[in-house]
Amino acid sequence: MKTVTEFPRKVVEFPDMGIVMPDGCRLSARVWMPDDASDDPVPAILEHLPYRKRDSTIFRDQLTHPYFAGHGYASIRVDMRGNGDSEGLMDDEYSEQELQDACDVIAWAAAQPWCNGKVGMMGISWGGFNCLQTAAKQPPALKAVISLCSTVDRYADDIHYKGGCLLIENFGWASTMLSYSSRPPDPLLAGDNRWRDLWLTRLENQPFLAPLWLRHQHRDAYWKRGSICEDYSAIKAAVLSIGGWHDGYRNTISHLAANIEAPVKGIVGPWIHKYPHYAAPKPAIGFLQEALRWWDRWLKGIDTGVEADPAYRAYVMDSVRPARWHPERPGRWVAESVWPSPEIETREIELIPEGAKAAIVASPQSCGLAGGEYFPFTFGPELPGDQRPDDALSVCFDQPVLTEAIDIVGAPEVLVRVSSDRPQANIAIRLCDVHPDGASELMSYGVLNLTHRNSHEFPEALVPGETVSARVVLDQCAYRVPSGHRLRIAVSNAYWPMIWPSPEPVRLDLSAATLKLPLRPLAQRDEVTFPPPEAAAPWATETVRAANSERHVDRDEKTGIVTLSIVDDFGEVRDLEHGLANGSIASETWAIHPDNPLSASGKTHWTQTLSRNGWSVRTETSAEMRSDAQSFMVSARIEAYEGEKLVFERSFEEKIPRALL
């Protein structure tokens, strides 16, 4: 990545610009802009997050926002209310208050003397979600959006209920946010006599969101609000959607490119859950240059050619040996002028011959441990590994060895006819690339709660023994399977710990299955290119403790319990400008007995530290989730320390009935 230190316009930074909301709540913003913006007004770009601009996202902020400012923009990074250095309280993700605050910040920015009245909004993950949701509210000054690693469906394509199945990330992410939002504002900004009061008020009102999300197990009004797929036409701003094949949010780019009526373009690379100018697996791209083309066209009216860009640009990954981490993925960029593309044809493959005996699917509850993380994040061992351990616990339909390579581009589907011996059952289907020596690489997967086969809003219990039809849509992918390899479709009724298990062991009888495979003519070379990555000067820090990530799977031969243990030590660094040191360590354990779905448990623990010149605070948060046949049980705890003194403690505990889950 090339570091840029000289820009067309000189940059000035405001580290704590207060933006007062209509209700009097002060939001803290870090703002970069050209030093002559008051004489020559510029468009504004907003990123609105709960992740703490002072110490949490500062690494990426420092690369990105000064770069935009140096090219003629006021780049605004706001801490959401109840987080970081902002006042107020947060009660949920993507709340009406959060979105209204974003609209109010946009209106505030547009009215400033240094702004030309036009605003863009961008973000990745939470910021990618809320910029789309804000755009749907149509604030007048918002003209363009760049949304990365986001979703159009808060229920079925987020960390909550993929395919109507309960993702363990529903609990895991609630635990993460409990920790993230437990930290205080920086006393240098909030004031020595004020930061503690703000912190304690925040802690007293801090939500543990897992029970709230578990109370909405079906696709009700709670999830429809903020789901862009409910009304794509509500978005009038121009949208650039970007994602990665190794991220959990790989479907959104296709959905937006196919459905947005406003100007829209999509880019999907080989990346994990990161901005693409520093993402991996490589190749990274010049994301900031690409973003400037978008901003210049829609916020400055400059003809940059973005309207003539292909509707959908995707990186077709070559086959590689399975590994928990890939520093790079060989492949090539392809381009489609319209999306969906008429160049992509669907090949149907019958997996079960007519008249053949039904396949019995009755997987051990521990099937799925090779699946990797829902959204890999740490540049560590989080990707899917060799699928053979899970394949051995699944029903596999191996296809003939390929005599020529194929490019799979799109969302594979499997249509099934299936009966269950229980009223609730899940099905997981994986599409794998099997090497000549048997190594199995995951290309895509899909899961479905079969009680949701007709509707996520109005699920229907299965009648034991009755055969039903269902459509399982696998995630979007772009993958070249070479000659000499074969396709494997692996079917299981457990996928731990990606999804929470059914309340009872289940047997599925699979009597028919049809794979619908999206095939694109074989790409011969890169059909588009991107410039190499550029960025502003990186964050100046010293390392106090190096980062490290570990994953272990253990089987207790006495009890039979299988446990996945995860430790992500994000390290500790000190800011060389303002002196704040911040550190973070997370641990998770996911345990289950292969024969007993009710043995499933998840536990998390987070430690967050902040310190400067003898001042230090620490928060310890822990959470646990279990279930019986009727209910989910979740609990959590916060402990906050000033120095070594415990200054706050709070516990949460709730039991929520299961509803066909």
Automatic annotation (TrEMBL):
The keyword Hydrolase applies. Gene3D superfamilies: alpha-amino acid ester hydrolase ( Helical cap domain), alpha/beta hydrolase, Galactose-binding domain-like. SMART domains: PepX_C. InterPro entries: AB_hydrolase_fold, CocE/Ser_esterase, Galactose-bd-like_sf, Xaa-Pro-like_dom, Xaa-Pro_dipept_C, Xaa-Pro_dipeptidyl-ppase/CocE. It comes from the Bacteria. Keywords: Hydrolase. Residues 292-539 form the Xaa-Pro dipeptidyl-peptidase C-terminal domain. Signal peptide: none annotated. Pfam families: Peptidase_S15, PepX_C. GO terms for molecular function: dipeptidyl-peptidase activity. PANTHER family: COCE_NOND FAMILY, PUTATIVE (AFU_ORTHOLOGUE AFUA_7G00600)-RELATED, PEPTIDASE S9 PROLYL OLIGOPEPTIDASE. NCBIfam families: CocE_NonD. This is Peptidase S15. It comes from Mesorhizobium mediterraneum.
